[in-house]
Write a structure and sequence with these properties.
By secondary structure, the protein is an alpha+beta fold. It has two domains: 121 residues, Ribosomal Protein S5, domain 2 (2-Layer Sandwich); 72 residues, Alpha-Beta Plaits (2-Layer Sandwich). 33% of the residues lie in helices and 40% in strands. Strand 4 and strand 5 form a beta hairpin.
């Protein structure tokens, strides 16, 4: 399974009829991390009246109008994230009121536009769910196996030379059986254990 997210935080300002909209877009791993970003932004721009937000973290999707008329800020922000097929990301739009009322339609366009501008400025990356597989072998096989792995389609994350040699390899869930057969062919004496799954850039 692949997901799209942003590689790093971006902070973009737009202006609509003298109101300033500052959109912070940050990659996050879960809901607590997203809420921490929102809280930090609120502290940073404590003079602003509105800090509207939207985030998608795994299966969790949340948005907040933070005092703006219902449905004019958080919902259009969340819709932009969905429309761009992003996940594991939080958007916070801080508004400094410029004295001109924007109306319902104007607010929807302004908040959605602020997030769109931030996504346009960000680097979007594709990540794939991968298992960390630990391959254990003896020192006789280790050098050749490591070389074979590094020239294979699989990604070596690290090698630990102890009493035995442990090689950590990233393997997609759908490729576990193929990798098991590959390992049996290249290093019959090696053993493997399948660890936790996480998302890795590809």
């Amino acid at each position: 399974m692949d997901i799209l997210t942003v590689s790093a935080a971006v902070d973009v300002e737009t202006e609509v009829r003298k109101s300033r909209f500052l959109c912070l877009l940050v990659p996050v791993g879960d809901e607590p991390a997203a809420r921490a970003v929102i809280a930090a932004r609120r502290r940073e721009h404590h003079a602003a009246r509105h800090h509207c937000s939207a985030f998608i973290a795994g299966p969790v999707q949340r948005s907040s109008d933070d005092g703006e008329p219902a449905g004019t800020a958080g919902a259009p922000m969340l819709e932009v994230l969905r429309g761009r097929q992003l996940t594991d990301v939080v958007a916070v739009v801080t508004r400094y009121f410029g004295g001109v009322l924007l109306g319902t339609g104007g607010l929807i366009r302004a908040y959605g536009g602020a997030v769109s501008a931030a996504v346009d400025a960000a680097t979007v990356v594709r990540r794939r769910a991968m298992h960390t597989v630990t391959v254990t072998t003896d020192h006789v096989w280790a050098g050749r196996l490591e070389n074979d792995l590094r020239s294979s389609p699989y990604t070596v994350d690290g090698v630990d030379y102890g009493a035995d040699v442990r090689i950590e390899v990233f393997v997609a869930p759908e490729d576990i059986h193929v990798f098991t057969a590959w390992l049996a062919e290249h290093a019959p004496a090696a053993t493997m254990s399948v660890g936790e799954m996480s998302f890795r850039a590809i």
